[in-house]
Amino acid sequence: MLGTIINAGAIIIGSIAGILIHSKLSQKIVNTVFQGIGLLTLTIGISMSIRSENIILAVISIVIGSILGEWLGIDIGLDKLSERLQKNNRKKNSISQETSDDTSSARNRFKEGFITASMLFCVGSLAILGAIEDGMGKTPNLLFTKSVIDGITAIVLASSFGISILFSAFPLFIYQGTLTLFAAFVARFMNEAIINDLTSVGGILLIGISFNILKIKEIKVINMLPALLIIVILSYFCQ
Question: What's the mean pLDDT in 44-48?
Fold first, then answer.
């Protein structure tokens, strides 16, 4: 678990640094950085999406995952979570329309930042291979490397999205920690082909997130997240 703990800590420290930097930046600079993050997310998503050699499985996973996500109402649940985390910033009595609109915008931005960071930090072969390496009792060099990358990324993201990036350390800890604890079991199934398929679907979802960040098209990426589980199952049984 050492690698995951350090990884989560790097994100928290990077997020705090990013929040402090944000307070000293003009809105114009923040907006430009925000657009840069969108382009960075798009680039990472494209590079990840081409990893799989079986695009049909990715398509099926996205379709089934989207249907499942809509049925479960994942976006609604996350909206409620975002509202709870920000409740101390909201007035409980007689909120004006202007304040209500501002609160809704802040909530959407919080959710967008949380999803973006969680996807960037959790999805990818480095997270999977690093957690397995850690769980097998080896020195977690992969997660040490990932910690440096994620820490720098957290600074950039938090300078635009704010505190929502800090909270993304928790799903990363749960995700990588679970893989680490069950590494012996996971290693039997997570071969290179499955990892590539998972990375590819994750990349496609990141492309959708980049569209949201760049305001090209509003895409419900959060409701497509079950596709990450579906692709693992399909990839395993289709080999």
Answer: 84
